[in-house]
């Protein structure tokens, strides 16, 4: 079984590839058994830039928009959606959230007064990384059962970059589409980032229990990871 430090090495190594991954996300294929082509015909289209187009057609191939114009050629095998009287807008992207990841159950309370005095164990060495769960993956935990998915969609958001929450290294982020029939349909690309929080874990009698301790903790993990990746 890999140690926590080994998982952190992997997770921080992934961060270096964020730009390249997101740059290729637009070419990702849609998942599922839908037709290769969709066509929205006769709609009013409001593009990202430029004036709105009346009676226009939008061609989508495997999740990627291929054409938006009044004279776009619709492939014979396309699933045609009549858009007369409808307005097509670009979908918004929430670039950092935990939408699509149901809340984890609260940790069991401890202490003499039913959890009134929760304690965080002190770190016991370089392999003990409190507040670090880099093996968690948004892609593995993504679920359409999260009630916020429908709320975000109703507000015009179609895609999110979502990551687990909790701790200083909570896990790996993924690009998720807020739609589909199965949880796996949501995943566009993973992993794309490893978020870092400077919110201290523990208290002043355990490390890291302050903002200064959090800065030192993140810096030390970075140094440990960098030295091991260079070997």
3D structure, described in words:
The protein has 231 residues and is of the alpha/beta class. Helices cover 21% and strands 23% of the residues. The protein is built from 5 helices and 9 strands; from the N terminus they run ααββββββααβββα. It has helices at 4-15, 18-24, 138-141, 148-154, 211-229, and strands spanning 37-45, 53-61, 64-69, 79-82, 87-88, 92-97, 157-162, 173-177, 187-193. The strands form 2 sheets. Strands 1, 2, 3, 4 and 5 form a 5-stranded mixed beta sheet that branches. A 4-stranded mixed beta sheet has the order 6-7-8-9, sandwiched between helices. Helix 1 (4-15) crosses helix 5 (211-229). The longest helix is centred in the C-terminal third of the chain and has 19 residues, at 211-229. The chain is elongated. The model is unreliable at 1-31 and 109-120 (pLDDT under 50).
User: What's the alpha carbon Rg, rounded to whole Å?
Assistant: 22 Å
Q: Which outline best applies?
A: elongated
Termini separation (Å)?
Answer: 21 Å
Uncertain runs:
1-31, 109-120
Largest sheet: 5 strands, mixed
Q: Percent helix among the residues?
A: 10-25%
Q: Give the DSSP E fraction (strand runs of 2 or more residues).
A: 15-25%
Number of helices: 5
H and E string: HHEEEEEEHHEEEH
Q: Helix- and strand-based class?
A: alpha/beta
Mean pLDDT: 79
Query: Care to count the β-strands?
Result: 9
